[in-house]
Amino acid sequence: MVRGTAHMAFPILFCFLAAGFSSPAMGGPEVFSEPQQNLERTCFQTHSPWRGDCDLRSDVAIVYGFDSTMAERVQSWREHGYRVHLMTGVAWGNYQDYLHGQFDGHHHEDEEQTDRNGHAHGHGGGAYYMSPSTNYGNYLCAGVRRALEAGVEAVHLEEPEFWVQDGYSEGFKREWRQFYGEPWQPPHSSVDAQWRASHLKYYLYRRTLQQVFDSVLAFNKQTGRQVRCYVPTHSLLNYASWSIVSPESSLARLNGCDGYIAQVWTGTSRTPNMYRGQSRERTFETAFLEYGAMQNLVRSTGRSVWYLNDPIEDNPNHGWDDYRRNWECTLTASLFQPEVWRYEVAPWPERIFSKRYPRNAPPPGPQPMPRAYATELQAVWNALDDMKQTNVTWDCGATGLGVLIGDSLMFERGDPAPSDGALGHIYGLALPFLKRGLPVQPVQLEAATIPGYLDGFQCLLLTYRGMKPLTPDVHRSLADWVKRGGLLVVCDDDGDPFNGVREWWNTNGLHYATPRQHLFEQLHLAKDDPNPMRVGKGQLLWIHRDPAQLAASADGDAFLAEVVRKAATNMEAAPFPHFRWSETNCLYLRRGPYIIAAGLDESIGGPARTLQGRFINLFDSELRLQREVALAPGTRFVLLDMDAPEIAERSLLAAACRAVPLKQGADATSMMLEGVENTPGIVLLRATRAPRSVLLAGKAIDPFHYDAEQGLLWVRFTNQAAPRELDVQF
Q: Is the pLDDT of residue 573 over 80?
């Protein structure tokens, strides 16, 4: 993957001077030494020791699991030049030694998550989802300690998940009695019991993670090291959709939590949702909102986030065309969050480059990865190293629009009165605007109290259908934001049965029938005033409807978009000139020399937007020059703008491998190349003259392709998982 090829001449020269290589004579395999690797821009996770078909040349290799082979695997990746982290499951794993008494002499099968029929919730292979006790937290601390002693630089504690359907084990009943000081209630017996069960599940995994974070912090204090802790987790939207409870936003407030990996991929984003009365997969749009939810989880907290992309998915029964199309959707969606520039490029590369799909294919049977897809992946991964850009510009629908989401979306997913199965109360508010080219953002309700968090938003949509505010202080923050000039659109019919659960708005001297009434009081409005009202410099608009009903209606999106447009247009008039409403049938974002674009289906009418210029489509494995790109409905693009000023001095433009420049001059250019073993590689160079010779590891590459008119040189070869020098003489 391209390393150190910064935009202008001076940074490129710095890379030439700083990049270095260790040889086998120095001990171990020949590896790169690259100055920007400490930024940890890209990573991948694997259970394997180093192998050529897993050598993605990211900055970080994340070794999975703390079994007896862990230290050996850590060392194998370190020897090949990687920074090494550890990842292990929090809710599940190969933890049979804990379950069956080898850890502490006691059996812990009563801590397995269990449903109302007494069935333990398995994860496969003898692993079970856990209802975590503090003793289970001690077990995780012991396993993580072994990884710390093996020298990992960070720990990732993935997927703290408690299923809504569970909560019937003896271990969970004990935790209930201790937490609430009252007898356990079957979660399905009432909305109050379901709410309280979910709240407890939310707390238990937060407690477990804090145990491990505290253990790592103690290790750091003892040793003087700075091992970091991250939580790879699905988005709030996905966990709510799949009926799972997880600590989500509360983790950002834990001592020792350094951030997240946003586990968004085809498997989560192809979950069907409802729009215009039609339930179907909308992978791109769902991924856009999932990635946005994860970015807004950490924004203003000082934490970092990596975005996961998966070139395939967990389901092995799809074909390569399906995997490729949906990966392009999720990858493009992730790049529409310009504040994020770190990526997990692949989980489990061993199942990507070495397996055949679909698993259940009829004769001639499953097929290996198409070679063009292997090239495309590596060209895009190369570009991901270069996404930390300062020139960021939107050119589509109006920005500054958000939909508030809260962690309690996960609390209302179970019997006896689960919220809308398609999560229409959220997608019914978000999709009408995203489909009209407005890059709407999910906004974390619990973070609203962070100073400055709501700055930059001009319009927020809110419903308490399917979720509730966990604390009253968020209402003060929302009220202050409205008074400063924001437009708050509340879409709610007050009909949610969970309005009646025992919570802050109806206990300790408060007697509100719904939390919405408390919000309106903070805005100095009557509890049930349905009219649009000026509030300070801003405005509140109450739409007395269930947003899930809008999602289920063929014209619900048009109704909502028009109501909000009219209110926003009124806000545009003085003294509210900061919000300019516009709609498009595409999304378009410039990130330095890169253009991220998507044509939208189910959108407004009109011709597709056409881009004119000189572009390299990084989804094209041939890296061909394109003069015109049409953003037709359903299309996705990651384009390199050949005329962007950021790359005017750049010789190396794109590469389907890792490419580290060694020297650049008028008469010669050289670089070191390394890629996934036995995959097709390609390098695109800027060249003012035709080359006299092109040598890779001392052997001539012929033919190569040179375009004299455009001054471009394409060099093709077969990748190897070892560094080789490419030398071009002019």
A: no
